[in-house]
Q: What sequence folds into this?
């Protein structure tokens, strides 16, 4: 078990290394650097000054050298004025070193956000906290509802309840966040006026009024999928011998479902819920942009739109880490929940 | 000048009437399929359940809408008639006396015509991209599952690498205007579009290598047609100027194929690992068939059930991805009538006008719903066998 987890963590680190290298390559393409230089200088700056801005801020150094600096295996250098030999900080707004030192991700320095004029850590971690809150409420709504739908549908396969709930879950998987968001806003904000169509005020404090729409919009797309997986698992469990035995013993249907079927049927959905996180990440981006909620997704869009290199790398690192760690949890947890599976 | 309106009832009748070519085609196809359903194999079995009929109906509806878009829509999707700005549904356009059935948007374009034309973009890109993703996934997934070992480790690692990327980040990195100045999209297109040609060449080679008369004809056709489409799509140098793709659309296409082929790869790999333990594969191995023959002619046909179901779901998922791209304004032109862009434009103005937002959302949702119903019904039918 221990060696399995160690090997998986090794793979995770390798994957993160490869992916950040790919992201680093893509954000440092020539057109993207031009875009960055234009957004960071005054309007109508001539081309040679754009170029000198890039040189001055170290963007023209060797690609692998800069990746090493970002990672923290090579020292970061301050800007040196060639005429006087005086050194200045690369970006004054985030305490860059004035003398060469190792200051990368490995040392806990995620770099400098050019868009928000602050350190990446100062921008990214509060945003992650805000998104964590959103995720918590989404899971608190989505998981119980979808498990309930799945169990009710799978209890008696082919019944009317099963048909109705199955079609409803298929419909929910056909409703991406930007569709359900628009429809819910039209119904609950424009027509009925019950809820707020914007969650911008949720940064100060969440209320039922401003937070319900983002949560149900995000929850509805995943609900159908988890419900269908739970249903499939429940249907399979209900055909097992031990369920028939329990029925033939004379137990009532409800106690068979609650005492015998439920525990076995909930093993598979656990994996599915864990694997929903990558999907939720994309949903978070859409929902946060749509409802103007200042979280991780909003930060990611701002970083990508302005080619904010360090912030975007930080975002990729976080999202890739979340995806991979949930996969690991789902594998290990599955082995714990299901004694028939042995991890090798 | 006061804009004149027709009543809500007239709007409904008018919209239904505009779709007349679709209804005619639907009645013909559905009744023909229904009466010959016993002879049509898996497709015919769809007509045994209500869910299947609903799925076929919705998918065919949007297919015919895309085909007859120019007949159905009363206006050009890009034309702006300034008096019709933000008009409510049922407004009459003064010059032509035609009706803006679903009203006008903020740029005074007909919402109804844009929705109809939007179906064309979705129905061209989504199935084609899914087809390419299937080709890539099958061509790589079969050897990974069949041989196992190093090749499996490498390919699975690459697939997991792509899958670990949140889709939205991938799109922001791959579908930006700047990236069109670099050779990356063309290189990726060049790589991905090679897979169908390789797939069909190997397919025919393994089957007919002892029958040169058949083999050379089939290989010739594959190489000529494949090479022709390849030249048109990747280099935009089709000698006959028939196959042509906009650079923007090529970029989207490549990004969507890139995002969805690892999923296909995983499914094909899993199916292959399962099927290769069967007796008929052992029989083929004993006969001395080559590994690629076994993969393509023994394993692949037996994996077709789950693959067809997955393809249906995947077209729906690709439609959602295209909508996401449109929603974030990535890749497609800002005035493009596709549903995602329309939803983005309309959702910004939801506080003042809601009518431009509803047609594209409902269109996208119904099309994906149709595909999901179809997939569900196919799965149920194939489990019965």
A:
């Amino acid at each position: 078990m221990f060696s399995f987890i160690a090997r998986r963590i090794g793979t995770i680190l390798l994957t993160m290394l490869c992916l950040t290298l790919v992201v680093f390559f893509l954000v440092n393409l020539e057109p993207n650097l031009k875009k960055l230089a234009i957004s960071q200088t005054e309007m109508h700056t001539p081309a040679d000054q754009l170029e000198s801005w890039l040189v001055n801020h170290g963007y023209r150094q060797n690609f692998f050298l800069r990746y090493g600096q970002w990672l923290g295996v090579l020292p970061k250098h301050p800007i040196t004025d060639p005429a006087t030999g005086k050194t200045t900080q690369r970006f004054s707004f985030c305490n860059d070193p004035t003398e060469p030192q190792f200051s990368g991700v490995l040392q806990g320095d995620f770099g400098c956000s050019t868009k928000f004029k602050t350190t990446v850590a100062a921008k990214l971690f509060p945003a992650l906290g805000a998104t964590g809150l959103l995720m918590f409420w989404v899971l608190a709504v989505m998981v119980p509802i979808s498990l309930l739908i799945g169990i009710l549908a799978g209890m008696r396969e082919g019944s009317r309840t099963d048909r109705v709930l199955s079609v409803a879950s298929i419909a929910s998987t056909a409703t991406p966040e930007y569709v359900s968001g628009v429809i819910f806003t039209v119904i609950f904000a424009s027509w009925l006026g019950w809820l707020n169509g914007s969650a911008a005020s949720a940064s100060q404090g969440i209320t039922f009024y401003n937070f319900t729409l983002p949560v149900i919009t995000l929850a509805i797309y995943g609900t159908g999928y988890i419900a269908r997986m739970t249903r499939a698992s429940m249907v399979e469990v209900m055909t097992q011998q031990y369920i028939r035995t329990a029925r033939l013993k004379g137990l009532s249907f409800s106690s068979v479902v609650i005492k015998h079927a439920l525990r076995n049927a909930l093993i598979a959905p656990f994996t599915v819920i864990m694997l929903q996180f990558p999907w939720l990440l994309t949903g978070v981006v859409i929902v946060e942009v749509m409802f103007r909620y200042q979280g991780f997704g909003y930060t990611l869009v701002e970083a990508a739109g302005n080619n904010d290199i360090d912030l975007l790398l930080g975002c990729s690192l976080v999202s890739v880490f979340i995806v991979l760690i949930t996969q690991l949890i789902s594998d290990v947890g599955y082995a714990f929940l299901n004694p028939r599976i042995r991890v090798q | 000048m006061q804009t004149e309106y027709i009543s809500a009832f007239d709007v409904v009748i008018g919209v239904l009437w505009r779709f007349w070519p679709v209804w005619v085609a639907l009645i013909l196809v559905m009744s023909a399929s229904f009466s010959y359903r016993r002879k049509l194999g898996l497709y015919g079995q769809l007509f045994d359940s209500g869910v299947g009929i609903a799925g076929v109906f919705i998918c065919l509806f949007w297919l015919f809408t895309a085909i007859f878009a120019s007949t159905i829509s009363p206006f050009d999707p890009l034309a702006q008639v300034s008096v019709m700005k933000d008009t409510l549904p049922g407004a009459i356009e003064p010059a032509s006396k035609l009706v803006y059935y679903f009203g006008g948007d903020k740029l005074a374009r007909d919402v109804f015509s844009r929705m109809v034309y939007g179906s064309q973009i979705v129905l061209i890109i989504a199935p084609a991209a899914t087809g390419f993703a299937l080709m890539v996934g099958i061509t790589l997934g079969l050897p990974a599952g069949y041989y196992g070992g190093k090749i499996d480790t490498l390919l699975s690692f690459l697939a997991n690498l792509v899958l670990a990327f949140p889709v939205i980040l991938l799109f922001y990195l791959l579908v930006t205007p700047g990236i069109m100045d670099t050779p990356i999209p063309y290189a990726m297109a060049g790589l991905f579009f090679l897979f169908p040609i390789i797939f069909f060449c190997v397919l025919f080679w393994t089957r007919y290598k002892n029958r040169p008369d058949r083999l050379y004809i089939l290989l010739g056709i594959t190489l000529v047609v494949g090479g022709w489409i390849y030249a048109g799509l990747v280099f935009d140098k089709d000698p006959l100027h028939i196959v042509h793709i906009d650079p923007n659309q090529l970029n989207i296409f490549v990004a969507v194929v890139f995002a969805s082929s690892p999923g296909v790869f995983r499914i094909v790999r899993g199916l292959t690992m399962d099927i290769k333990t069967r007796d008929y594969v052992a029989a083929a191995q004993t006969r001395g068939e080559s590994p690629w023959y076994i993969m393509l002619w023994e394993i692949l046909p037996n994996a077709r059930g789950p693959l067809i179901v997955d393809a249906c779901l995947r077209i729906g998922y690709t439609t959602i991805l295209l909508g996401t791209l449109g929603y974030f304004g990535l890749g497609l032109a800002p005035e493009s009538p596709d549903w995602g862009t329309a939803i983005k434009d309309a959702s910004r103005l939801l506080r003042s006008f809601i009518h431009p937002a509803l047609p594209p959302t409902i269109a996208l949702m119904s099309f994906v719903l149709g595909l999901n119903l179809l997939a569900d019904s196919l799965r149920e039918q194939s489990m019965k066998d």
User: Anything to note?
Assistant: The CA atoms of residues 75 and 102 of chain A lie 4 Å apart. The mean pLDDT of chain A is 81. Chain A touches chain B through 49 residues (CB under 8 Å). DSSP finds 14 helices and four strands in chain A.
